[in-house]
Every structure is written in C-alpha cells, then in structure tokens.
Amino acid sequence: MIKEKTESEIKEKTEEEKCFMPVYNRLPLEISHGEGVYLFTKDGRKLLDMFGGLAVNVMGYDNKKVNGAIAEQCKKYIHLSNNYYQETQIQFAKLILELSGFDKIFLCSSGTEGIEGSIKFVRKYFSSQNIQKTGLISFKGAFHGRTYGSLSLTTKDKYRNGFEPFLPDVKHLEYNNADQLEQNIDKNTAAVFLEFIQGEGGVNTASKEFVDKLEELKNKFGFLIVADCIQCGAGRTGKFISLQHYSNKDIADICVCAKGIGAGLPLGAILMKERISEKLHKGEHGTTFGGNAVACAAGIVVMNELKNGLMNKVTETGNYLKSELEKIKLVTGKIKEIRGIGLMLGIQLIDCDAQKTADALLEKNILVNVTGDNVIRLLPPLIIENEDIDLFISELKNSLS
Ligand code: PLP
Asked: pTM for this one?
C-alpha cells in the first residue's frame, strides 16, 4: 500500500482536478526538485528515478552542463523563427547526423510530430515520382504517438477506441512474425514503421530474422522503412539509435528521434536519407517551435556527452543491471524474462502483479513504470551509476521475495 496522502498532496490533487482534463494518472507525489538520478519530494523523500521522465531525462536532474548551455543560449535568444539560419540548430544537426549516419534532418518538437512528418515525407517521396503506393504497416504493441497519423499506426485499443476513423490503408501486423510480413507486403506498400525495440509494447526487441526478412522484402518491393527511435534512441541502448545493433543498420530511410535528445526540453528530429529530403521543397513542411534554440543547446550537450563516453558507459551499466536482474530471476523465481538492451530493460513477471510490485517499490522510494503484459519497464537517466543500480536491485529483490 502507498502511504497515506499528506494534506498538501490531497489539496494539490483537488486543484489539479479542478483545472485539468482527466487524462493523466498522476502519482501521489509532490516533487520539489531533482539531482542526478534522484527526485526529492516536498515532504523530504528521496526517490531513485528508474523511469527517467519516460526516457527523457537522459542527463539526470540539475545537470550543470545542460543548465549552463541553456543559460548561455537564453542570453543570446530563446527563439528565432525558422525564417533565419541558426548556428545552434546547425551545430546540433551536424552532431546528430554524425551519430546516426543519416544525411538530412528536419527538426520538430515531439515524437508524434516526427511520425506525422515522416508519413508526409513517405507520401511525397512516391507522389513526386508518380508512383502509386499508399499502404502503411505498423506492428501490434507499437506506440507511435497520439495525433491522427501516428494514432493510425499506434495499435492498442486503449489509445484508439472512440477516435475513429483513422488513416485508410494501414495494416497492423504481428511483431517479429516474418511469415505474416511476407504475406502482407506488396507493391502497394509505401512504408513500414518499426520500433526496433518496442517500449510501450513491453520492451520487445525485433529479431534478426525479422529485420533480415524486412530488408529482403524492401529490396523486392521498394517501400520505405521508418525507424521509430523516439524511445530506443538517444544512446539509450548503448548505440545512438537501436537499429545500429543490426548488421543491416542502414535499412531505414527515415528515423525519428525525440524524448532524450533535448535532455528534457521539447525536441524531435526526423533524420532521413538524401533521396527523401530532395523530394520536399520550400514551404511544403514546417513548424513554429521545431528546432528551438534553447532545446538545441541542451541537445548539443547530450550529443557531445554520448560521443565522449556516455554511450559506452550505458553499455557497461546496462550489462551490469541486466546481470544483477538475472541473479534475482534465479533467486526469486518470480521473473519470467528480462528483455531489452542497455538502459532500456523490461522485466516480465510471473505469479505477481507488476503494478503491485511497482507500488511496493514506490513505498521504498524507487520509481519504475509498468507496461505491456505485466512488465516493469526501466528507463533510468543514462548517467546512473552501479551503486544506484545496487539500491534498485536490493529493493526489487525484497519486494519480489
Ligand atoms: N513513439 C514512441 C516509440 C514513443 O515511445 C512515444 C512516446 O512515448 C512516441 C512515439 C510519441 O512521442 P511524443 O509523446 O513525444 O509525441
């Protein structure tokens, strides 16, 4: 059981209910500030954040480099319209293109906006060549966002029910089912949208065989592949984007990043091959806030940190976390499977409810998230240290025992 709510928590809850559309399931916590990988509450609790603002707070809280870069940029300007060249945008773009291996970029402000843009770019790629291809494919368990194009690709009923009609000509296929892929792809297929590691779906990794089949079919039918690396990008898996773990890492024509790339500021990036970008012309796409200078300044820090050792550290700490989890699996017998790569891990439980375990962990001042089919999802800040992991492991072991 979560401890009794304090008077001010109750007050804050009521105030929130008076003002907000009731779409968020908020935790009974009043956060005052954060430091490193810890959040502090007004009533003095110190919480280890294994959720990282849903994969956003990659540099943790109160990071001096991020704060410094933001302050410096604010002194110059906070916003310029995209009618102007912006040095901060260009510096950020060069770094993210280098890390991802793509040719061109369009900057936006969120994940779903990146997916929407990608759908437009797919359409334009074919229409500009008078090629009739309109079919879009995504996979069961996928989460691509909540605006109309993205929601047409997002598959869970709980996000879709009541919001129909969606984009026509969209198929939702089984993740990692190469046969079904083969049966459903044809010359009308314009694009396949794929999370190489599904987050919301329960931390599922695309199998090598599945990705190989996708490449084979792409070569045969000439559709595009859009990699959704919104959650599994920004160095979270020990590579900049998760598709870099595959031998066919150049398979995607477009890749969308968001969440962690702005260290907590709203920033999204649609990365693409030149043959996509050359099909769009002045005025055919745009945004007011996309590529905001302050967000890009924070993004430059993230890119530089990843380049200069943070990505390797993610591999090390991720391996450590996974190996410690494997030990708990053996000792408790309560874990069915540990999935994921680097610091994007899912713990599928058996014989106990993931939400109850998450509640028990919250009582012990550990923040985790529950997703998919009874899965505890871990997305801590990338700067987490082994000693923080030890604390998490010991509390998880206690709550499962
Ligand atoms: N795609 C994936 C894989 C995500 O995890 C999310 C958000 O959780 C989105 C798309 C949507 O991003 P946003 O919430 O920034 O619109």
From this structure: 0.96
